[in-house]
Amino acid sequence: MNPSTDHAVELRDVSFSYGPSRVLRGVNLEVGYGEAVAIMGRSGSGKTTLLKIIAGLLRPEKGYVKVLGHNLQSGGLNSVRGRIAYIPQTLGLIEGESALYNVLLARASRKPLMFITGLWGRDDVEDAIEALRLVGLNGVDRRRVETLSGGERQRVAIARAIFQGAVLLLADEPVSNLDLDTAEAIVNLMVGLKSRGLSIISIMHDRELALKYFDRVYILDGGVLRGEN
Ligand SMILES: Nc1ncnc2c1ncn2[C@@H]1O[C@H](COP(=O)(O)OP(=O)(O)OP(=O)(O)O)[C@@H](O)[C@H]1O
Ligand SMILES: [Mg+2]
After folding, report:
1. Number of domains in the chain
2. What secondary structure letter does DSSP report for 4?
3. What is residue 5's predicted lDDT score, i.e. its pLDDT?
């Protein structure tokens, strides 16, 4: 992997259908290391589908997907899985569990014994609390996630990506249900992760916020991406 010549994400002519209904019709995209890209488009245009393909959760029927220097089609997913943080539209937080536990989960696959016994190392707990602090959440680590506000829950999901040590953050409409001030604070926080070396691809609805904070903005329309700026 050579950051100067390679891209964090590279898609060539990617197509995808659910049964007979074709959603993506030849998507091309290049995202550099440390770059933040927003994807917009009307509901049902295929944004979540596209993000899941980049996360390796769906396989394209045609085309080429290279993520962090690995071709996902030819078995590269295992090499990069731990370095991709995917925040789904529904956030994927575990209700009934604390903010801290939800952050710690990001290392569950690397530390299965700690996950099973619940006996996390002190370093892990300190790192997780530090990640929560970095996203502006102090003193909420023991709170159950369902008692947090929408914005706070979104911050927990971002803290999880930081704690995971992700290099690529994929966020599906991270601010769609938040008031504008909270949305702007969270986008600012997320795009600020570029300074920690992350590349970010986020689905956005608010055009103004997207244009203000992201390096590039694309619209998914008719199954292809076109640049907005
Ligand atoms: N598992 C599935 N099986 C069949 N069709 C699906 C499936 N998932 C999504 N679709 C369809 O594919 C199209 C694209 O869905 P997708 O979720 O990617 O859109 P989206 O752009 O993310 O929409 P939204 O803005 O509402 O989240 C939609 O018409 C949707 O109904
Ligand atoms: Mg969606």
Report:
1. 1
2. T
3. 58
